Amino acid sequence: MDLKIIGTNLRRIREAKGLTQSEMADRAGISRIAYRNIENGSSTPKVSTLQNIANGAGVKLQDLFVPVRTLKNVRFRASKRMNSRDNILAEVTRWLDDFNNLEGLLKDRKKYRFKTLTEKLSSMPRGGDRAKFAAEQARLELKLNKTETIHDIAGLLESCGIKVYPLNLVSDDFFALSVAEDDGGPAVIVNVWERISVERWIFSAAHELGHLLLHFDTYKVEESAEDDDQEYEANIFASHFLMPEEAFKSEWDDTFGLPFVSRVLKVKRIFQVSYKTVLYRLSETLGNSIWGKFQIAYKLKSGKTLGIKDEPEALPPDKFLQYPEVLRSQEPDSLSPSHFLEDRLYRLVRNAIEKDEITMSRGAEILRIDLEDMRDIVSSWV
To answer: Burial of 119 by CB count in 10 Å (0-12 exposed, 13-18 middle, 19+ buried)?
Structure first.
């Protein structure tokens, strides 16, 4: 019995379900201290105790004993040291393995469409021009015209063979990471915690796509410090991918008669991006003073000062559906979590359940939802 593996799996499962140690202990019928010692690997539990914990968590007993493989080709950078880094990587690994196993079971694997573009970009000098070219070429590959806005970035990424995982992690130090094709990807993992704006989810997904295309040779799990030059390129890419130059200029010019704040917020709604993305683009031609001008104008208009994490006119996540269903009546003036939910894994799970390849319980496990929620989804299928 490897206590470290058991403890790592328990912590991963508990955090994935949003439970505290006390809540896990209550479900298993043991004290919090007893559970804590098991999760920390400082005591050897009876098999019957582990079975009770597994039952309480809604997982199989064997899930507590199976070691998680180590990702190697992953880009997980952060400005601060994260205590939960290893646990996040373990959860991503399990999710990727489940996804790939399901694709293999159903013989339904998407081809990655950006290999040729990545090779082309590797021979170009690094910098803003390369990032803009990458954004233009990526949109061409996806058959997006020069003025078309993106309303479903998760679906768009999945259509070109990139797996998308909206991971709900209570942390504003982590926005996203990505995994290379050689390690079960390509995949983009975005933190969809409710205190992070939906606009940030979307930008983070585009940002990680930029890294996949521009920095494929930097995917090394042991590297955790951010590279300013690479972050700059990925930001330029995301901005131009979400707001192509011609469309941005047209929409900005169309708002010419509006007050400055109203112009920024209207363009932000059209492209479903953060107001910061709009200001970032404006700063390319108008200079960095645009940031201070916006803050002053916004305070005069609203009487409030925008904090670093504030997003004006953002849609609260808890007001909308949790499953893949686009609210057409809200487009393009609003955003909801349904604009950032992966569809492909749900489709694979449905096919596998209907073909009796997996059980409903296994489907819930793959989707990281409760069995009761899985039953509700299955009963709603038409």
So the answer is: exposed
- Backbone phi, then psi, for 188, in 5-degree steps? -125, 125
pLDDT in tens, 254-299: 998 888 999 999 999 889 899 999 999 999 899 999 999 999 999 9
Closest CA to 376 of 336, 331, 339, 322: 322
Please state whether beta strands 187-191 and 163-167 pair in parallel, antiparallel, or not at all (unpaired): parallel
Let me know if 71 is exposed, middle or buried by CB neighbors in 10 A (0-12, 13-18, 19+).
buried
Asked whether 45 and 73 are in contact (CB, 8 A), the reply is: no
**How many Å apart are CA 218 and CA 128, to the nearest integer?**
18
- Give the residue range(s) of CATH 1.10.260.40 domains in the chain: 3-64
Integer CA distances (angstroms), 250 to 84, 246, 264, 306, in order = 44, 6, 13, 27
CATH (residue range 3-64)? 1.10.260.40
Higher pLDDT pick, 322 / 335: 335
Paired residues of 164 in beta bridges: 188
